[in-house]
């Protein structure tokens, strides 16, 4: 997947200026597809050059006081639809922490506890944030909200797993001493 489809999805949800899009990313899609503001602007320019997004109306201005609001074109909608309907193989994870743990298994002088405590803190914080967001979902949910909730629940399950794993691994390291 590429950033372009994350941006097309966000702009399909709501036409936005670059800065609005970057702020929305920080509070939604960015949880599972992070991107810097610079990356978002660069990709937005490419999408515009490819005819997949265009300015709303005839607003040519790109000044700070009047930012250009971008919308998805018909070609952009079709590209997003084609990508969303495609299947792709399950990705194989690449996780440097797992390699570090493997290295610690064969090198007696490697102590991962500080790193694992930091990981634990980060995952606990993200879990608390996700649970707080989950509480904002209530009542009868439409299809869009139910699918967004499913994404959130995936994040919650993942963070819970990481919190448990970090605690267990810290226990293994403490027991080994």
From TrEMBL:
Gene3D superfamilies: 6.10.140.190, Winged helix-like DNA-binding domain superfamily/Winged helix DNA-binding domain (1.10.10.10). Residues 94-174 form the Transcription regulator PadR C-terminal domain. Transmembrane segments: none annotated. It holds the Pfam family PadR. This is PadR family transcriptional regulator. It comes from Epidermidibacterium keratini. InterPro entries: Tscrpt_reg_PadR_C, Tscrpt_reg_PadR_N, WH-like_DNA-bd_sf, WH_DNA-bd_sf. Residues 7-82 form the Transcription regulator PadR N-terminal domain.
């Amino acid at each position: 997947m590429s950033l372009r489809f994350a941006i097309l999805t966000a702009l399909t949800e709501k036409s936005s200026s670059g800065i609005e899009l970057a702020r929305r990313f920080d509070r939604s899609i960015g949880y599972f597809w992070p991107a810097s503001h610079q990356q978002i602007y660069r990709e937005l320019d490419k999408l515009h050059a490819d005819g997949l997004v265009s300015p709303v109306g005839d607003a040519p201005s790109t000044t700070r006081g009047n930012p250009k609001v971008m919308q998805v074109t018909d070609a952009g909608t079709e590209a997003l639809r084609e990508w969303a309907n495609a299947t792709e193989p399950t990705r194989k994870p690449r996780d440097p922490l797992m390699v570090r743990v493997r290295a610690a298994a064969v090198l007696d002088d490697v102590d991962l506890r500080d790193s694992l405590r930091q990981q634990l803190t980060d995952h606990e914080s993200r879990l608390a944030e996700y649970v707080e967001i989950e509480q904002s979902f209530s009542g009868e949910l439409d299809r869009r909200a139910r699918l967004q909730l499913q994404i959130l629940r995936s994040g919650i399950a993942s963070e819970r797993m990481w919190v448990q794993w970090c605690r267990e691994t810290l226990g293994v390291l403490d027991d080994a001493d």
